[in-house]
Amino acid sequence: MSAILQEKETTLYLGPQHPGITGNMMIELKVTGDTIRKATTHVGYLHRGFEKLMEERLWMQCFPIVCRICVPEPDPNEENLARAIEELEGREVPERAKYIRVMMLELSRMATYLLWMGGQSGSAGLYTMPQWTVGDRDYIIDLFEELTGGRVYHMYIWPGGVRRDLPEGFEGRVRKVLDYLEQRLTDYDRLLFENAIFLRRAQGVGILDKDMAMEWGVVGPPLRGCGIAHDVRKDEPYEVYDQLDWEVITHEGSDVYSRAMVRRKEFEQSISIVRQVLDKMPSGPVHNPGPNPLKWRVPAGEAYVKTESARGEFGYYVVSDGSLKPRRVHVRGPAYVHGVSLLERMLVGANIADTSFIMNSLGTCPPEIER
Amino acid sequence: MKEDWGKEAGNIIARWARKHSLWVLAYGTGCGAIEIPPTMTSRYDAERFGITGMATPRQADVLLITGYLAVKTLKRVIRTYEQMQSPKYVMGFGSCTINGGMYWDSYNTIKRLDDYLPVDIFINGCMPRPEGVIDGFIELQKLIDSGQANGWKKYQDNLEWYRTNQKKVIKNWKMPDYNW
Amino acid sequence: MSDTLQKEEQIKASINAAFRSAKVSIQRKGRIIVEFRGGILPAFASYLKEYLNFKHLSMISGVDWPEDNQFELVYHLWSYEQSIHVMVKVRLDREAAKTKTLTPLWEHAETYEREIHEMLGVEFEGHPNMRDFILEDWDDLPPMRRDFMTREYVDEVYEWRKGREDAQDVRQTIAEQYNTEVPNFNNEDK
């Protein structure tokens, strides 16, 4: 009986309507028994044609669009486009605005990691964790809401700086949230990162070979989870990351567990970075205004800028032909490689039950694959 | 007369039961799906109202269309909707289900959800806050209570019209035809 | 300035020595643009990868230039050792856009090439798997071409709901702020 079952190949469709899939995408699995023999990803369920829409919009109108490219983490997108435009124009950014930007980026990294912790443990069947982390994430979201007016999409970072200065007493509230989250980390450790079931589930699963990671252009926590210390914030420092004291975090092991530990330690480090930013933040203006946005022409040229988002290198290639609208904006989402070709490769030989587990550990985010 | 009374009492009980156990299909069709975890977890705790997630369409009552629908997703959503058991309710979540929202000139997203599926209630905003979502659910409960949430009947009665609209955007219609 | 661009100058010199048909320019620190006119792109890419250590393929972008009747493919390569980003630009004829695939060098180039094939209609010779990527049953022009008019397509295919706001209040606020006449958002000015 078991021999027959093992030989028979079956096709399984995971998604697009499936609770284990992060977002809206589909994986077609060829399985024998419960071992995956071949995996094919199908994406495109979230395609909105952003890059086409941006060709039809004024430069300023692009900002509400780009933040929707990655739903859990919109700020790196805004920062990228703003920085690309600044590079094309040669516009200076006030020092204070740079610090505020770093604070936003790190807070959004923490919010993303909290959501990811919920997803990763939820995909392993541990449903207490999402209740905690998604609830705690709301403390950060509340800060965003106070600062920018939006819970999810902020449209706060724009060319020349940020939209408005920090409100009265905001710094103290950020510190309070940081203290709370730092103390919560002990609880998370006990529930997830030191949980014997999680360790059994995660160690040795979803191995990503070191050489393969370099070869395939893997970025972010999956790469650092292989023990390779590459981080855009160090490799090509942007904003004020070179003036802050922090280290690139790596973890040996190349499996789901090591990727989880990288994120967990980076979460701790983000807390320290935000604290440093608050300590060092100079006073001054937060915006270097540009021309009337309706008559705003960005000089012809091209720029490639990149940011380290919570999932890795987010890159923007912006081409301007000197007109009111962008010529081409091409977005490199970190999940582009992770979620399609790499996932297809990594799932071969894995157990069906580990599919969404591995997918979560790579941080797949479909909206940035298809945009 | 007595028979009618019994039927009416049965309806009241059924509606009361239905409105307090709205199981939402866990299908994040668009970016609005990011506000569903906060709605469902400890802070906003939609389970207070009997709203909880459900993994399979056959056991779900509410199809929550969280935002824009790409044509490719629309095809899957229609199939999912037709697999659900009656009575079933559709909620349009976000401006983009109402009139296309900020994707009004996108070649790949539909502009009016109610042309393709019978929508019982729309929640506006881009994106709606969890309070807004819960408010939308409470409105839906009121509609169910007063017997006005009849989108599924409307779909059965006007199937031809919906099919024509659906087939207009979905070029390759390779789906089984369900008959109820 | 010259000493800070030392690494870039070195790379420029070595590319120029090996490939005559490559026009190298240094955009700024850490950014090099190579305009490659020859037809042996895989050889050039493998030279960059193996000899100059540009191991990380960030992405491949496609830009449409209908006024030149050309497509431009931009290969973004990054070298971790030297912290330098190279953009290799290749121009293709718009009527018969065809180039060789880079999948033997970087396997993940497969998805980028599939997307460009779908969005611009460029053929990649030797590509292992050219199935649909994002769109489904698309029978119009490839959507990222400049001559594909998304607004006309929308008018044709989808139904509008009446009463969409035309953002009058936003336009008035902008006009007051900059002391100009109430602007028109559908500005077709180039």
**Overall SS class of chain B:** alpha/beta
**Cross-sheet strand order for the largest sheet of chain B:** 3-4-5
**What is the C-level CATH assignment of the domain at 6-137 in chain C?**
Alpha Beta
Distance between the termini of chain C: 36 Å
Radius of gyration computed on alpha carbons of chain C: 22 Å
CATH topology of chain B: Rossmann fold
Give the helix tally of chain C: 5
State the order of secondary-structure elements of chain B, H for helix, E for strand.
Answer: HEHEEHEHEHHH
Low-confidence stretches of chain B: none
Total separate domains of chain B: 1
Question: What's the CATH architecture name of the domain at 6-137 in chain C?
Answer: 2-Layer Sandwich
> How far apart are the first and last residues' alpha carbons of chain B, in Å?
30 Å
Structural class of chain C: alpha/beta
Largest sheet descriptor of chain C: 5 strands, mixed
Average residue-wise pLDDT of chain B: 85
Which regions of chain C contain 5 or more consecutive residues with pLDDT less than 50? none
Q: Which band does the percent of strand residues of chain B land in?
A: 5-15%
Largest interchain contact:
A-C, 40 and 44 residues
Number of strands of chain C: 7
